[in-house]
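Encode chain A's predicted structure.
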Amino acid sequence: MTIDTLKDRIPDFAKDVRLNLTSMASDETLGEQTKYGLLVATAIATRNPDVVAAMEAEAAGKLSPAALTAAKSAAAIMAMNNVYYRFVHLASNKDYATMPARLRMNVIANPGVDKTDFELWSLAVSAINGCGMCIDSHEKVLLQAGVSSATIQTAVRFAAIMQSVAVALEVGSPALAQAAE
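Encoded structure for chain A:
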């Protein structure tokens, strides 16, 4: 499956999603590793197997094995961290913020790729997962590393588009339509 296959499967009610996916696919503002790692990490965060398969196919030959692993690691570690830190942030009892997380997160310190790419992927996944504390943390690291606000915004835009693709495909799926009848 490819991005073109996904575009063809997006229902007409989500024409804007299809157009945004086209725009995202042709975006050349990011370096190749940054872009394709972002596509893979955010696809995984959508939890839609078709979206994941399409983005992994798009990334094939464009990402090194280490970069593909790092993109998957960003999605996996943020799945854990976003739940934990969203809880810490939202809980009325602020004692949780003083407690050690006791979660292994070694991959963040040594992701196997450029740290700014990993941080950007982590930020985009955190946007999908809705963790403001993680968004703030990753944005701070990126800005300190000299990454522009425009690049950060592009990563979050990619995340938003990826999530909308997954939703459009799920809502438009024949199985879901049949279940609604």
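Residues 176-181 have pLDDT under 50 and may be disordered.
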